[in-house]
Amino acid sequence: MGKFRELSHVYYKCEYHVVFVPKYRFRILTGTVNNLVDHDIRLISQWKEVEVLELNVQADHVHLVCSIPPKISVSDFMGILKGKLAMRVFKSYPELKQKPYWGNHFWAKGYFISTIELDEEMIRRYVRHQEKEERKREQR
Fold first, then answer.
1. Does the domain spanning 5-139 belong to CATH 2.102.10.10?
2. What is the pLDDT of residues 115-130, one digit of tens each?
3. Choosing a second label site near 111 at 20 to 30 A (CA), which of 55, 60, 81, 95?
């Protein structure tokens, strides 16, 4: 089950493509802010046992491809991620909080999310031939 991850009672493959943007889509995620956001996304993900498969922090948005375990909902993870990142950015760069358009909100409301699915034909083949494969294993 190579590509699958496991918890104590479940095997899973829950992969998502997530995109989120700073408030007003300002091009603020550059230089040291970019490095901080990249580092902290990886740190928070590790803390919540989310595997970061791909991460690209661009000037006005973040692309994240990750595997989120079924014990945590996507919306809970995104709430934690965006909340912790905003607090960290404002703590590290207090001048950003002084701007009247930021207030206490660094990220725009919402995010884009899409599941990354298994190959449908592969699943159909697996279901079709599963019994045969199990019999072969039992005979060995």
1. no
2. 887 665 665 676 677 6
3. 95
The residues that are catalytic are 126
CA distance 134 to 138: 6
User: Is there a contact between 103 and 125 (Cβ–Cβ < 8 Å)?
Assistant: no
Domain boundaries, the chain: 5-139
Q: Which residue from 42, 23, 2 is spatially nearest to 108, judged by alpha carbons?
A: 23
pLDDT at 110 over 60: yes
CA–CA distance, 121 with 78 (Å, rounded to integer): 31
pTM, two decimals, is 0.81
Which of 12, 48, 13, 29 has its CA nearest to residue 96? 29
